[in-house]
Amino acid sequence: MEPENKTQISEFLLLGFSEETELQPIIFGLFLSMYLITMFGNLLIILAVSSDPHLHTPMYFFLSNLSFVDICLTSTTIPKMLQSTQTQRKVISYEGCIIQVYFYLLFAGLDDFLLTVMAYDWYVAVCHPLHYLVIMKPWVCGLLLLVSWIMSALFSLLHSLTLLQLSFCSDLEIHHFFCEIKWLIQLACSDPFLNNIMVYFGSVIQGSIPLTGILYSYSKILSSICRLSSAKGQYKAFSTCASHLSVVSLFYCSALGVYLSSAATHSSYTSTVASVMYTVVTPMLNPFIYSLRNKDIKRALKRFFDMETFIKQPFVLGLKDMG
User: What angle do CA 237, 45, 258 make, to 5 degrees?
Assistant: First the structure.
């Protein structure tokens, strides 16, 4: 019977936040606004870094890649959620659900690994400033990025392949706004032992080990800053790391909130709201955190928009002359 049940599965129901009709326009407007802000903010970071040669450094190379991954992570879940809210059709196909799980885990894992690589970059910049350009060569940065992609792709592929081995029965309602892997495991009729092992194993590799690397890097950074003789130098060194430290704290605190809400309570609503912080709010806030106190990003954006104005101005003057 299990193979038969498995082949009959063609779709799941994503119940989202609320089934109350009057709340749907509010939910749609809120998430559409957050999605557009996320896209706009992260695209500005990518444009600023790519258009300014002064920002072609390891730190901004990883930052632009983080912005790209944040765009992809949000685009994996929110457009489908907006479509379901607008059309009131909450169905997602079986294949679409597995694909969504794959790309969600891929980009969430990449976020984690990139934050770890960025912490290492800060460690080298603060603790070994004289050897920074020797250690963080372009090919080293490319290799670190490639390893991050390969590790994330492998883990997301393994999770997706083990999900394909599960069989499902009549209960196909996912009390979430996207195909969350833990919900799929809970809905399975077959034994999810291998899937649970993969989840715990993945949590250690993609969660605990990167976090340990980040904590180690910042312990060395703080130790190096404390050894500086001048208070001005200490403030300057710490302020350069503050943006990344804020993003790391936001990322791991929201991820921890998702884990604790799913472990400590059986309320699907609480778990869903916690996931919003992790999958939507954090990618939306990242570009603002990095740009508000970063003079280099502000300068690059000003140059970019001034350049756009300069390019458009002769065209407009030419039209006036023709008139």
Answer: 80
Task: Mean pLDDT check: name the lowest of 60-64, 73-77, 114-118, 300-304.
Answer: 300-304
**166 to each of 16, 99, 201, how far by Cα in Å?**
23, 15, 18
| Amino acid sitting at position 97 | C
Distance CA 148, CA 141 (A): 11
Q: What is the pLDDT of residue 2?
A: 43
> In the predicted model, is pLDDT for residue 3 greater than 50?
no
* Chain centroid, CA 62 distance in Å: 13
Alpha carbons 149 and 161: distance in angstroms, whole number: 18
Cα distance between residue 176 and residue 320, in whole Å: 55
Q: Which two tokens stand for residue 222?
A: 């703080």
Here the contacts of 185-194 (C-beta below 8 Å, separation 24 or greater) are 187/12, 189/2, 189/5, 190/2, 190/6, 190/165, 190/166, 192/166, 194/162, 194/165
Contact partners, residue 286, CB within 8 Å, separation at least 6: 41, 42, 66, 67, 70, 247, 250
SS3 229: coil
DSSP string, 169-209: -S--EESSSS--HHHHHHHBSS--HHHHHHHHHHHIIIIIH
The per-residue pLDDT for 1 is 39
Q: How many Å from the N-terminal Cα to the C-terminal Cα in the chain?
A: 78
- Residue 36 sits at the vertex; the CA angle it makes with 35 and 42, to the nearest 5 degrees, is 90
